[in-house]
Structures are given as structure tokens and as C-alpha cells.
Design brief:
The complex is a heterodimer of chains A (439) and B (372).
Chain A: E1 14-17, E2 23-25, E3 39-42, E4 50-55, H1 58-66, E5 75-78, E6 85-88, H2 90-93, H3 103-109, E7 114-116, H4 120-137, E8 141-145, E9 148-152, H5 157-160, H6 164-179, E10 183-188, H7 191-198, E11 206-208, H8 214-218, H9 231-239, H10 245-250, H11 253-260, H12 262-271, E12 287-298, H13 301-321, E13 324-335, E14 340-351, H14 354-368, E15 374-386, E16 392-393, H15 400-418
Parallel strand pairs in A: 5-7, 10-11
Antiparallel strand pairs in A: 1-2, 1-3, 4-9, 4-10, 5-6, 8-9, 12-15, 13-14, 13-15
Chain B: E1 2-6, H1 7-18, E2 32-38, E3 41-47, E4 51-58, E5 60-63, E6 65-70, H2 71-80, E7 86-92, E8 97-102, E9 105-112, E10 127-132, H3 133-143, E11 158-166, E12 169-177, E13 181-188, E14 199-202, H4 203-214, E15 219-224, E16 228-232, E17 236-241, E18 260-265, H5 266-276, E19 286-292, E20 295-302, E21 306-313, E22 315-316, E23 321-326, H6 327-336, E24 341-346, E25 353-357, E26 360-367, E27 370-371
Antiparallel strand pairs in B: 1-5, 1-7, 2-3, 2-6, 3-4, 4-17, 6-9, 7-8, 8-9, 10-15, 11-12, 11-14, 12-13, 13-26, 15-16, 16-17, 18-22, 18-24, 19-20, 19-23, 20-21, 24-25, 25-26
Helix pairs in contact in B: 1-2, 3-4, 5-6
The chains are: A alpha+beta (439), B alpha+beta (372).
């Protein structure tokens, strides 16, 4: 069926069958073409082009796909007995398990759950496959994380021979059939609303928020629906009489600006569903970091350094892949009472070397770590710039980092060819039992 | 120990020595200043194990002796005493506390035994010479901005001091560089310094010296070995370990044949660079210099913040040239130039540029351009 040739009356309510993509007027009951009951109706269905696509319980869904025996069982993907829940499947959610919940709590709620250690490499590969399918629809794909992205399909109607809603329904089906995980689609006229929409009909959903209904839709919603409004801001707004977004709509923007500054203006705009942010392909990373939670708290500095080195290598690898340099190295530590401290160090010159990150982070660690037992350590680069972008400052004596960089590049190449364990720094080779030694 | 000393003399001496004390110390005694009362003087010594600063002040010694007490606290106490006060320092409580009395003030500080106070072994510093304090001060003051802060290039974290002889020309040379810029300062070679080894005086010693040389009398006695250097100031001295490394052959990177000469009014130039670079991105502070006959155009284009340009009348008859620099580096060099006119010698947009003070042939600066 060629939709562009078909006359679509945009004023009357149309329905789209999500299984056979037939378009009919005000569908009730079953699709006359394929008999499906899954359809989406909205007066503006074919006039909206900004979508948010969110994978349903992504990590868990991939694990279920790869092991059909898990299909009906509660699955939790998360790290170790001390870690937290990364993702839990919808079966696990019925037991009250939520993501970011400490693992022991999740297991209290759902003792029968199958716990699987996250295999980030696998998930990233699936994410890339999905992204490629998205990019086949439009160049304007803005990934938000490994399992969600914004798409702007404006002006793609002629290319696809169908309006964005149809292209999205097809994409949704294609991902399900070819990749084996389900996604939820939110379609609206800007990013803010598209992201809200994708959450309305989860899992396997397709929800639409049109222009005409925007104000009325948002009015009864809690202010916490607005991105950037966290627990503290919600409480502050509630104190000031703004419990719902409707209250914010009625408030004078100037008054909101006076009370909350820049944030107030943002609240005024978003409460009316106004969001002018374009969908930007390749969201710029602000920082690249990695962290790990220990099985048992670590107090020993040498043992912490060993973990830190591994994290530095990981972060460095990602920086090099993305062709980024960072000027600031940040060390993060969380102690047994969940108190987090961060320490930062500005480098002499931007770098993406594991050694540079380690040298800076190790010095910070030596200052910050002694005296407490730690449950988590993390390290990251920030204040990023593209390698080779901007003006280049040459060195009178030749760049001293160039040699180290060449060395690390050689190591990376060996790893790419022979695997991550093919070559390692001496400090990564210490036997496990040796790590706790206090020397 | 029981000693009485004029407040101002004590403040001055304490002020000179206490700044070397690291604010955070894992070895408690390093937070302390060593006090030694003997023979009509009180000698104060502080150290961070790399640098030792000591100074004596005339005092009325009733009972000679020695002790160590918190340098920062003692300095703060004495500083806050009224001017003209006579300060009495007495070891009391079986030498467990240092009592400080002045007028109606009475305080006491915990002490640690003076035998435990570490001193820098004064090994054989067999090269000795004396030179005008002003000459030495100038060498360090004008070179220090170019010192590197990079830990990985520890051998650049200081000022390289060495004798230089070329025929009749005999100089004491100071050089500092961080790889992006270089400063080379000359002073007449003092008698006895010909045999001095080339030494790298570490950054912290350079900044401590700057303060000491400000207050110094006319001449400074210098003694050098291959691992330490000592500057004597009459009433006191600073001894520093040297950086154990090889300073690069910096003469090699100073261009000899840059053909294009530019003369600018240094003050006007610095002010214009400062104005124009206000909108430049913080990372590189990139500024472009476009040179044509007797005209210099400074431009900054920062896509995120804005742009600026300014034109200066200059003396220039070289080929038209466009070259980029880090504006901060240009300003740092301009700040060293005391004369009215700065002379640039340029080659091309990717080669080092020389900047000199037209009225001072004993100073030379090299800047590496930014490739835009």
C-alpha cells in the first residue's frame, strides 16, 4: 500500500493498525484487513514527527531472547550480590522489583528471580543494530542511552511513502521480528512530550500526544514529570503550591522566573509543552566514566589502585574509540554508609591515556581514600574536546605524551587482534590473594 | 632556653622561613620551626625536606637552648602582638612547652625535641661565588613564568642556571621552559662561577627566593654542588635540593635565522591582545596575528562566544604573515618586557618566534605558535 498516494483526511480521526499498517477511519474492534486489535487512533496521528523510542526492559529482554527457558521467569540483570538492579523484566516487576534497587532488596522481594550479570558488550551490540535500523529511517537520531533515542522524521514522508507514524510502527515491528526485543514508541511534536508519551503505553506501546491536547494532557500531571525536576525541586514546588503541571501553566512566567531563576522559565515553557530543543544526532558526551561496586568493602589502598587501573583502561579505551580528549579527571568513591565523595584534577594537557587518568586519579585516591572502607570506586574524564579539533599547540621539544600515546595505541591494537587479556600492565597481573596485602 | 627578642625582628625572620612549611604534613615535626638561641641571636629554621630556610635575628639570650614549635601558629601569634613589643620565649614544663610572653599576653605552644628536627646535610658545595642580589633576582623573576608545571616533565619544573662562555662573553644564564614557551636571561658571570655545574633550581625554591631576594642586602653568596644549591643572605640562607634531571639542549630550539622583524609598542600591544582575546575560548586562548607592511591586525574568532579584532601600527617590512598564538603566552612575555618596544622575529606560522626587549639584550623569549 502506498500511503502518499492515498488521500489522508487529517481532520477526522484516523486509526493505524500496528500489525498490518492499514489506515482506516475511527477504528473500533478489529482491523478489517488483518483482524488485529492493536491499533492507534489520534486526530493528529499523521501530523506528528518527533518520536522517542525506548526499549522495554532492554537487558532482561535480550537475556530472555537468548535463553527461551527464561521467558516466563522473573529475570534481574545486575551486578553481583552487592550490586544494584540494572534492569528487571516485567515478570520481576510484578514482585515489586525496580531498577536501581539494591540487589539484596530485589532478592527479598523476589527470591526466585534469575540474576544475570550484565554483559554490556552484548547489549551494546544489540543497541547498535537497533540504532542502524533507526538511522535507516532518518539521519536525525539522537541516542539518549544504550536503550533509548529521539528520532525526528520531519520531511521523510515522501522517502518512506508513508507518514512518520507508519514508518515508526513498521520500525517497531521490524525490531521485534529481526532483533527479538520490544520497544515502546512515543510520538508527539517535541522531545519533551515524545519522551513522556513513550512511557504511557509500555511495554510494546505506541502512544501519541497531539498539539491540541498538550495543555489539557499536562495539566493534571505531577510536576515531577518534567525532566530536571527531582525530589528536592518537587518538594520546593509543592511548598509553593505547584503540585501539578496545571498550576505551573496558570502561573505568570515572570513570577516563576523571579522565584526559580532560569529554571523557572524552563518550568513555564515545559508546563505548556513547549520544547524547542532540536533532535541532534550524536549527542555530545560531557564525560566518559566507569565505576564498579565491590563484592566486599575495600580499605587497602593497593587493592583500590588495582581496581582503579582497570577502570582507567576501560575509560581510556572508550575515549580513544570516540576520538576524545579530556582535561579533567574525576575520582568517585562511595563508602560503606553510601556517602559519595568526588575529587577532580585538571590535567596539564588534555589526554585520553589510561596512564594519565591513573596518575591523576591515583594521587587523588591517596589523599581521599585512607581511613575508610569503600564500596564503590569510579573514574572519569570530563571537559572533553575532540582530538585534533581547534588550534594545536606544538611543543619546542616534541610532545612528551606522544610516546606514551603511541605505546598505548600499540597495546590497544594487540588487544583488538588477540583479545583483551593478550597484554596487560604489570600491575594488573598481581594474583588475587596478593591484592589485600598491606605492603 | 630563655630569650627576648624585638617583635618586628621575630616577625620578619619567621615570615621568611615559615612559608616553606607545607600546610599539610604527615610528619608532625615538619610543621615546626626550629628555634636556636645562642650567642646573642635567635636562629629560626624551617624545612620541607627539599628546601631549608634559616635566618638569625639579634636577641637577648638569657639561657641558651633549642626547641621546635608550630611555625604557622608561632608566626600568627607574633604577628598579632602589638608593634614594638618585646617577645620572651621560654621553654617551660620540663621543656615540654614553649611559653610566649609579651606585655600582658601569655601563651604557650607544644614543642617537639630539636634533636628530631631534620636538616639538609650540607655536602661539599665546592663552587662558591657571590653576585649582586638584583642580578640574581632578575634572572629568576623574568624566567619563572615559563617553568613547566607538568609532573611528567619534572626536569622542566624549575629554572636552569648555568655558566656560559663564548669567547670574551662570559655569562650566568637562566633558562626556563614548558615546551610552549622559553625564557633565557643573562647576567654577568660572577668570579668563581665559571666552574659551576648546570643546575635546575626547583619551582618552589624559585618562588621562595623571590621573596627572600626582595628583602636581601646587596650581595648574595651562592654555593653549589651537583645536588644542592645554597643562597646566603647575610643573616640567613636558603638551601635547596636540585632537580635530578637533564635540562634539554634549549639553545637548539632558539631559531637563529628568523627573517621577519616586527617592532611593537609593548604596552599598546599587550593591551590590545588582552582586549581582543577576551572573547577567545578558554582552552587555547587562540589569537591570530596578521602582519602586513607596518600593520598588525589581531583577531579572535570564537564561534561560541563572539569575535573581536584590533589593528595596530607597527614597524614591519617582512613578508605578509598570519600566525596564531595562545594570548596568555603573549601577555606573559609582554609582562617581562620593561622597555617601550618589543621586537619579534618571526619565520612562519608553525615555527618558533623570538621576542626581545629592544632595550635589554640580556633577555630573550621564544614562543611556539598555535596552528589554527
Amino acid at each position: 500500500m502506498n500511503y502518499s498516494e492515498q488521500h489522508i483526511d487529517k481532520t477526522s480521526v484516523l486509526s493505524l493498525c500496528r500489525d498490518c499498517f492499514a489506515i482506516v477511519q475511527a477504528l473500533i474492534g478489529r482491523c478489517p484487513t488483518c483482524g488485529s486489535k492493536r491499533f492507534v487512533s489520534h486526530p493528529e496521528l499523521f501530523g506528528l514527527a518527533v518520536a522517542h523510542i525506548d526499549c522495554d526492559a532492554f537487558y532482561a529482554a535480550i537475556e530472555k531472547r537468548d535463553d527461551p527457558a527464561l521467558a516466563d521467569r522473573p529475570v534481574i540483570v545486575g551486578g553481583g550480590k552487592r550490586g544494584v538492579v540494572s534492569t528487571c523484566c516485567y515478570v520481576a516487576r510484578t514482585y515489586g522489583v525496580r531498577s536501581a534497587m539494591p540487589m539484596f532488596k530485589a532478592l527479598q522481594a523476589c527470591p526466585d528471580a534469575v540474576v544475570i550479570r550484565p554483559d554490556m558488550a552484548k547489549y551494546a551490540a544489540v543497541s547498535r543494530q537497533i540504532r542502524a535500523m533507526m538511522e535507516a529511517l532518518t539521519p536525525l537520531v539522537e541516542p539518549l542511552s544504550i536503550d533509548e533515542a529521539f528520532l525526528d522524521l520531519s520531511g521523510t514522508e515522501r522517502v518512506h511513502g508513508a507518514p512518520p507514524a507508519v514508518a515508526l510502527a513498521r520500525l517497531q515491528q521490524r525490531i521485534e521480528r529481526e532483533i527479538g526485543v520490544t520497544v515502546s514508541v512515543g510520538l508527539s511534536h517535541n522531545k519533551f512530550l515524545a519522551k513522556i508519551a513513550s512511557d504511557l503505553d509500555k511495554p510494546r506501546g505506541f502512544a501519541v500526544i497531539g498539539r491540541a491536547q498538550t495543555l489539557a494532557f499536562l495539566a493534571p500531571q505531577p510536576v515531577s514529570l518534567i525532566w530536571g525536576v527531582g525530589a528536592a525541586m518537587t518538594a520546593r514546588l509543592a511548598r509553593d503550591g505547584f503540585a501539578t503541571i496545571g498550576r505551573l501553566q496558570k502561573a505568570d512566567p515572570a513570577e516563576l522566573a523571579r522565584r526559580y531563576g532560569e529554571t523557572g522559565l524552563r518550568l513555564a515553557r515545559l508546563s505548556r509543552g513547549e520544547d524547542a530543543r532540536p533532535v541532534r544526532p550524536e549527542r555530545e558526551a560531557k564525560s566518559v566514566s566507569a565505576e564498579t561496586t565491590f563484592e566486599a568493602n575495600i580499605r587497602d589502598l593497593r587493592a583500590l589502585e588495582d581496581v582503579l587501573w582497570a577502570l582507567c583502561e576501560k575509560v581510556s579505551m572508550r575515549m580513544k574509540k570516540a576520538n576524545l580528549l579530556g582535561r579533567v579527571v574525576t575520582l568517585k568513591l562511595k563508602d560503606s554508609k553510601f556517602r559519595t565523595i568526588t575529587r577532580r584534577e585538571t590535567l596539564d594537557r588534555p589526554s585520553n591515556l589510561a596512564r594519565a587518568a591513573f596518575a591523576a586519579a591515583r594521587a587523588l585516591l591517596a589523599e581521599a581514600a585512607p581511613g575508610r572502607a569503600w564500596r564503590l570506586i569510579g573514574v572519569g574524564f570530563s571537559d572533553l574536546a575532540n582530538d585534533g579539533a581547534g588550534a594545536a599547540q606544538d611543543d619546542l621539544f616534541g610532545d612528551p605524551q606522544a610516546r606514551l600515546a603511541a605505546q598505548e595505541r600499540a597495546i590497544d591494537e594487540i588487544r583488538a587482534k588477540f583479545g583483551a587479556k593478550a597484554i596487560a600492565a604489570g600491575r594488573a597481573l598481581r594474583p588475587k590473594g596478593d591484592q589485600a596485602r598491606n605492603d | 632556653m630563655k630569650v627576648t627578642i624585638e617583635r618586628s625582628a621575630l616577625v620578619r625572620a619567621l615570615g621568611h622561613v615559615q612559608s616553606v612549611v607545607e600546610r599539610r604534613n604527615t610528619i608532625p615535626i615538619l610543621s615546626n620551626v626550629l628555634l636556636q638561641a645562642d650567642g646573642g641571636a635567635l636562629t629560626l629554621t624551617a624545612t620541607d625536606l627539599d628546601i631549608e630556610i634559616s635566618e638569625s635575628a639579634p636577641a637577648d639570650v638569657a639561657v641558651k637552648g633549642a626547641a621546635t614549635a608550630s611555625a604557622v601558629m608561632l608566626h600568627d601569634i607574633v604577628r598579632k602582638l602589638p608593634e614594638g613589643a618585646q617577645v620572651r620565649l621560654t621553654l617551660v614544663d620540663d621543656e615540654a612547652r614553649l611559653q610566649i610572653t609579651a606585655g600582658r599576653y601569655e601563651g604557650s605552644l607544644a614543642v617537639l625535641p630539636d634533636e628530631d628536627f631534620p636538616t639538609l646535610a650540607s655536602d661539599d658545595m665546592d663552587v662558591r661565588f657571590s653576585m649582586p642580589a638584583a642580578d640574581l633576582a632578575r634572572l629568576f623573576a623574568k624566567a619563572r613564568f615559563a617553568m613547566s608545571q607538568e609532573e611528567t616533565r619534572y626536569y622542566l619544573n624549575g629554572v636552569y642556571l648555568h655558566p656560559y662562555a663564548d669567547g670574551d662573553v662570559k655569562l650566568l644564564r637562566a633558562a626556563a621552559t614548558d615546551g610552549h614557551r622559553l625564557a633565557r636571561l643573562d647576567a654577568p658571570l660572577p668570579a668563581g662561577a665559571e666552574k659551576a655545574p648546570g643546575v635546575i633550581v626547583p619551582r618552589k625554591a624559585v618562588s621562595e627566593l623571590a621573596r627572600l631576594l626582595d628583602d636581601a642586602e646587596e650581595t648574595v653568596e651562592v654555593a653549589v654542588s651537583s645536588s644542592k644549591i645554597r643562597f646566603g643572605f647575610g643573616a640567613g640562607y636558603l638551601t635547596s635540593k636540585l632537580i635530578d634531571g637533564t635540562f634539554p639542549d634549549y639553545e637548539r630550539v632558539i631559531p637563529k635565522t628568523n627573517p621577519n622583524a616586527l617592532r611593537v609598542d609593548n604596552k599598546d600591544f599587550a593591551a590590545a591582545v588582552d582586549r581582543v582575546s577576551t572573547v577567545s575560548a578558554d582552552r587555547t586562548r587562540s589569537i591570530k596575528l596578521a602582519l602586513a607592511a607596518d600593520r598588525l591586525r589581531l583577531t579572535v574568532n570564537n564561534p561560541e562566544a563572539g569575535s573581536a579584532l584590533e589593528e595596530l601600527s607597527v614597524d614591519y617590512d617582512g613578508e605578509p604573515l598570519e600566525i596564531g598564538f595562545n594570548a596568555r603566552y603573549l601577555l606573559d612575555v609582554a609582562a617581562q618586557i620593561d622597555g617601550e618596544t618589543a621586537t619579534f622575529r618571526l619565520a612562519d606560522p608553525s615555527s618558533p618566534t623570538i621576542i626581545c626587549d629592544e632595550e635589554d639584550e640580556r633577555a630573550l623569549y621564544v614562543l611556539m605558535p598555535l596552528r589554527v
